[in-house]
TrEMBL record:
Transmembrane segments: none annotated. CDD domains: AdoMet_MTases. One of its GO terms (biological process) is methylation. Residues 1-42 are annotated as: Disordered. Coiled coil: none annotated. It comes from the Eukaryota. GO terms for molecular function: methyltransferase activity. It comes from Ascodesmis nigricans. The keyword Ribosomal protein does not apply. PANTHER family: 2-METHOXY-6-POLYPRENYL-1,4-BENZOQUINOL METHYLASE, MITOCHONDRIAL, METHYLTRANSFERASE. This is S-adenosyl-L-methionine-dependent methyltransferase.
Length: 342
């Protein structure tokens, strides 16, 4: 566990880290709110183009996103959603959102499972799930819709529109976090909540010395963090970094909730054993999904990358190494109009 972060399920962290990235000069494929339908059409069939690499299917248009988009990955995303529900004790979020926030945005919605669950529970909310890949279900609730766009480009929704913005597990892809958080701030309504749900990518943590320094699982995690960074994203971000960037964007009341996620069913407590088993199940395809393209593009041969993946799976199966990663829910609020100094 990194120094200064609590080991329990909730802790606030303060740290001054260095800025991560420079200004962004990108722009959206879309011009304005009203143009979304036609712009989506203008994306043509290229948004469905794929490439195959190391036996997995990847989305061709996702230049910066090096995780697969195939059925196996979609199943994993739905499994990871269940794991996330277990971690949060059944909740979809930690932010204290009101019963039916009118406009909700799920950034990088994936299969759309979070957006659908939220829409089902909050039928008075209009929920948009946005993703660069059209992998969402074609069936949806009347109050949930999906859009295809690159969220690192300029957002074309109205400013001050969303009453809750949720974003989960995009860390391997995002190049310019400050720009993204600035867009979240600009498009959040005064008083709205945002929640960033990310986990560590750089280390296999352990509290009882059972993970040796040369553990293959630990080597997998460290190689992953390095590969993400080499790819131009940020493999070493922790809760405190997201918090700092949210504060810099202008959010207030920023709180970090920290959760240990055991990789395997080794914990004694029933709750953590359950979480660990689901985690191990999701990692059966997750280790490959996270690691293969990233590691092979940034230094490793396919054989070496697969050795790390398979060795880590074996370590999880044996259960002697009590490793975990850290899940963060970082929650913030855009100040209300009466809180903003004039
Ligand atoms: C690991 S998945 C998580 C999906 C979903 N948030 C969940 O938790 O189930 C990451 C998703 O972010 C999307 N994504 C990554 N970079 C993106 C970008 N620049 N614009 C839009 N979507 C992006 C990917 O296409 C993928 O569906």
């Amino acid at each position: 566990m990194p120094e200064d972060e609590t080991t329990a399920t909730s802790g606030i962290v303060h740290e001054n880290a260095q800025p991560l990235v420079a200004a962004n000069d990108s722009h959206s494929d879309y011009e304005d709110d009203a143009s979304v339908a036609s712009s989506t059409q203008s994306l043509t069939d290229s948004i469905r183009d794929h490439i195959y690499e190391n036996g997995r299917r990847y989305h061709r248009k996702s230049e910066h996103y090096l995780m697969p988009s195939d059925e196996t990955e979609q199943d994993r995303l739905d499994m990871a959603h269940h794991l996330q529900l277990l971690i949060l004790g059944g909740a979809l979020h930690m932010a204290p959102v009101p019963p039916n926030p009118p406009n909700v945005l799920d950034v990088g919605t994936g299969t759309g499972i979070w957006a659908l669950d939220f829409g089902e529970l909050h039928q008075g909310s209009a929920v948009i799930g946005v993703d660069q890949m059209p992998i969402q279900t074609t069936w949806t609730w009347p109050n949930v819709k999906f859009e295809v766009d690159d969220i690192e480009k300029e957002w074309t929704w109205k400013k001050n529109k969303f009453d809750f913005i949720h974003m989960r597990h995009l860390a391997t892809s995002i190049r310019n976090w400050p720009y993204l958080f600035q867009q979240m701030y600009d498009h959040a309504a005064p008083g709205a909540w945002v929640e960033i749900s990310e986990h560590t990518l750089d280390e296999l943590y352990c509290d009882d010395g059972s993970v040796p320094e040369d553990s293959i699982f630990r080597r997998y995690m460290r190689t992953l963090g390095l590969s993400v960074t080499k790819a131009g994203a940020h493999g070493y971000l922790h809760g405190r970094d997201y918090k700092r960037m949210l504060l810099e964007a202008g959010f207030v009341d920023v709180t970090i909730y920290t959760f240990k996620v055991p990789c395997g069913g080794w914990p004694k407590s029933r709750r953590f054993k359950d979480i660990g088993r689901w985690c191990a199940e999701a990692l059966k395809t997750g280790l490959e999904a996270y690691g293969l393209a990233l590691m092979t593009r940034y230094g490793l041969t396919e054989m070496d990358a697969r050795e790390l993946v398979n060795g880590s799976m074996e370590a999880m199966r044996l259960g002697k190494e009590h490793g975990y990663y850290i899940q963060y829910q970082v929650v913030g609020r855009k100040p209300r109009a009466d809180e903003v100094a004039v």
